């Protein structure tokens, strides 16, 4: 069976957006599926990781077409602000500069569904010709950016082909939508496009249970949950840090700012001399100014180790060496559906996870199910502090580890098997 995957993110793109379908492409042939991947020729990726290029399977066909992206013009206003917004790091409304407010308004109201919309028409023209000359059994579009789903929808309408939509994140309920300065007309256009896509596709795949429930209110099309997952990375043996490293890997957006956690950590440094000597807060990836200021204001300036963006291989190494792994999600009902890919990589590292997020978050269910750590809501200062102290005592005794269970079904090979079964059922 031959399928066409339409995606914006592909190596050398870095970050989590590229890893999901790169992994599926890696394993599809084991399930008698031959993938062809359609990607932009000249994309503007906010993060790059050249190491992902080596993970593209030999012989896989990758076809490309040029894309026009307005981010390059936006850089004339402010290169820094443009890069920050493209990474998803958006300051709170009261701290936004005039340029950032202007760029967000333009991004939200002139580029619907997103700034990659100019890739839709040329891609449809090119793919119509490609599909007429090459036998493809089914097309899959994966977003965000959700403009790729409009490519799939137009091909479906014009050619009547089978089409699956994969939503790595929700569309109109995603947390950052409220920061885009959308007018009522723009918001209505987003909702209309979302509904049209959800009711035109043959099958919907989502990464979380909450997103499935949300979409079931909009469409009666079949919806399957296929989460993100992990690979057993071939990495040299990791030795645990001798310090009590509490590490966060990935972007810390402005909204991911659990001040009660920062306070708990600071108070422990004041109350426990051994903790103060051993503790280190390790931040790997982009960190917003808002979060960094909060951490420093909490009195943790001398304990921060800012590493910036590292390769995926190095990130895995850090996860396996750290004593505690932080997982932080924005404290909003709109983000309870977010299950980041790094959660599964955290799990397989077998280091205890300390997660902070909104009430009824999907990540809480998975952490409990796999016994991989603890989840807290933002306000739970005493519980957070107590748990960190318990972890520290176990660290001192050399007994700190996570007795993880039942994570095999989240391996990317098993998830590819699930996707393959869905593909073959249509």
From TrEMBL:
Gene3D superfamilies: Glycogen Phosphorylase B (3.40.50.2000). Pfam families: Glyco_transf_4. It comes from the Bacteria. Residues 106-233 form the Glycosyltransferase subfamily 4-like N-terminal domain. This is Glycosyltransferase family 4 protein. It comes from Aquimarina celericrescens. The lineage of its organism: Bacteria, Pseudomonadati, Bacteroidota, Flavobacteriia, Flavobacteriales.
